[in-house]
Amino acid sequence: MVKIDQNLGPMHRRFFRHALNDRTEDRNTNGIRNRPDQDGRHPLKRVNDAYVVDWVSTLTSNLVFNFRTSFSRYVEGSRGEANRGFDLAALSFPQKLLSQLPYGVGDHLKR
Fold first, then answer.
1. What percent of the chain has a predicted confidence (pLDDT) above 70?
2. Which of 35-39, 88-92, 97-101 has the weakest average pLDDT?
3. How far apart are the first and last CA of the chain?
4. Is 70 exposed, middle or buried (0-12, 13-18, 19+ CB in 10 A)?
5. What is each CA distance from 51 to 1, 27, 67, 71, in whole angstroms?
6. pLDDT at residue 2 above 60?
7. pLDDT at residue 108, as a whole number
C-alpha cells in the first residue's frame, strides 16, 4: 500500500492511495504431486487492486469542497493443473460413464 499526501497551500490538499494484494498460491498439502486428489484448485489466484484520489478545498471560512473517487477490483481464478494429463479411465469407471462427461474423457483436461 502506498499513500501520497500533498498540501497545495493553506486551502487545498490532495492525496492518492494505491493498495495491491496478490495472494496467488500453488500448494500441495497431501504429499501427492500431480494427481487429481491433490488438495484444492491449483494455482489459486486472488488479487486485489484499489485506487483512491481525493481533493479537499476550503472555498470560504464556512464552505469546504471535497472530491473523492475510487476504483477497486478483485480477481479470483483457479485451474485444475494437478488434473492435467490424468487418465480418468485409470479410476476403473465404466467407459459408458466416462463418455457422458461434459467434455469427453480427455477433452476437459485441455481447457
1. 68
2. 35-39
3. 35
4. exposed
5. 10, 30, 14, 5
6. yes
7. 45
**Backbone angles phi and psi of 72, in degrees to 5:** -140, 155
C-alpha cell at 54: 481525493
Strands 44-60 and 12-22: antiparallel
Domain ranges of the chain: 2-79, 85-111
d(CA 78, CA 44): 5
Contact 23, 47 (CB under 8 A): yes
The pTM of the full predicted model, rounded to 2 decimals, is 0.56
Cα 110 to Cα 30: distance, rounded to the nearest angstrom: 25
Rounded CA gap, 34 and 41, in Å?
A: 12
- Cα angle vertex 20, ends 17, 24, to 5°? 175
Confidence of residue 28 (pLDDT cuts 50, 70, 90): low
C-alpha cell at 58: 476550503
